[in-house]
Amino acid sequence: MMKLAALATLAGSAAAFAPSNQGATRAATSLNAKSQSLPFLESPPNCEGYVGNVGFDPFRFSDFAPVDFLREAELKHGRICMMAWLGYVSVDCGLRVLPVPEALEGVTAATAHDASVEQGGLSQMFLWFSLLEVLDGIAIQQMLEGSGRQPGDFGFDGGLLKGKSDEYIEDMKLKEITHCRLAMLAFSGVVTQSVLTQGPFPYV
Hints:
Strand content: under 5%
Oligomer: single chain
Radius of gyration: 19 Å
Structural class: mainly alpha
Distance between the termini: 22 Å
Number of helices: 5
Helix content: 40-55%
Shape: globular
Low-confidence stretches: 1-30
Number of strands: 0
């Protein structure tokens, strides 16, 4: 679990701060404009006009990859890390989903991966997550072909955005992407700290 999560975090971090929002109006940007987050670099022009853009794309992925694809990856990895941080810490705080298989008795969040591989539970998770990735890939392909779908939008807002103003929706998008970016850093940090200390939460 730890190894897969760490790899997912690293993969997402590459595009973590290259924002996107399909259909948004790109503001005209001078080629010499400086990045807000990295003022010693030029601001990536393809990121202009997107929610949460602070000019952070030091490797300039947005120059050769669709920014909507990058935002989809950023949101996906950020959402995963928000859930992963909570799940990781919950295990080390003693939370369990009953009944606990005998092979997983006494595991910590850091040792759960190897134990789950031997027990077989991780193989089932891999199967279901692979299916979800296929479905997500179809949605992304349709989005890039102009379906009108927004990056990361699966219609799971529970009606909370219905009838809301554009300003309110933009503010909620900014809050989500901010928490996604924080979660990617936080999950990487909590895994590292727990392995180094080998102790229970808060790993000090």
